[in-house]
Specification:
Elements (H helix, E strand, L loop, with lengths): L2 H15 L2 H19 L16 H31 L2 H5 L6 H31 L7 H25 L3 H19 L10 H7 L3 H13 L6 H21 L4
Length: 247
């Protein structure tokens, strides 16, 4: 990183750690949700309809995706659009820093928070509910990273298109619930009807949920899940970088 980028990252890190509300929803809440769902006895029973898996097993990757979506679509855009609304971005614009460097700093910080949340979910799932750790660690990490990049890019687009924090919140909310549906929060993707599942698997949430589930079982994710995530990450990332402005 260049010097302006390092300065921005240090400053944003201090500000980020001063916001316990955002950290709670990104880092703590997904694990709390997993504990609540895992406390339901029927969710800890093996099901033939799920190929012998338990519902709680499926909700480990879903909880990780919840953290990813919460950070990328709900928390990060609100921070950046508040900066824009309060003319903070205009003041930064008088420095050698570029818009892409501030956007990258936010990607790094929120990405790090999601990584911490994912580790916490996996540990609690393993110790509290005997959820097996991913059988294919490499492919699990690959899907996770691609999903994180895709959702951060979507959050970047929301930020780029939102002149005010209110509009950002509205766009984030409109985007959040469909993304959580496609990630399987209300019903795991595996249990959806075939036609609906085919459509859902073209979204970053659906592709990530299915890919992480395959990796958890020790298999390499299907190539089209990887392709879907790459297309979303590259496409949305390019749009975010193109249209993000100081004001």
């Amino acid at each position: 990183m260049t010097s302006p980028a390092r300065t921005i990252l240090r400053t944003e890190s201090r500000l980020f750690l001063r916001e316990p509300g955002g950290l709670f929803w990104v880092v703590v809440f997904p694990t709390v949700l997993l504990v609540i769902l895992g406390s339901i006895p029927s969710f800890r029973e093996h099901s033939k309809d799920l190929g012998g898996s338990r519902v709680v097993d499926l909700y480990v990757p879903i909880s990780i995706l919840l953290s990813t979506i919460m950070a990328s679509i709900q928390v990060m855009p609100g921070i950046l659009t508040t900066y824009r609304e309060q003319r903070v971005l205009r003041r930064i614009a008088t420095t050698p820093a570029r818009p892409s460097q501030l956007l990258l700093a936010q990607y790094v910080l929120h990405g790090a928070a999601v990584v911490f949340a994912a580790i916490l979910v996996l540990l609690v799932g393993r110790t509290a509910f005997d959820v097996k750790l991913p059988g294919s660690v490499l492919s699990y990490v690959l899907i996770f990273v691609l999903a994180l990049l895709a959702f951060l890019a979507i959050g970047g687009v929301i930020t780029a298109l939102s002149p005010t924090a209110k509009i950002s919140t509205t766009l984030g909310t409109i985007t959040f619930f469909p993304m959580m549906f496609t990630a399987g929060l209300w019903a795991p993707v595996q249990t959806m009807p075939h036609g609906l599942r085919t459509v859902v698997e073209l979204t970053p949430g659906g592709a990530a949920a299915r890919g992480m589930d395959q990796a958890a079982l020790g298999n390499w994710p299907a190539a089209h899940f990887l392709l879907v995530l790459v297309v979303w990450a590259v496409g949305m990332g390019a749009i975010a970088a193109r249209y993000f402005r100081w004001e």
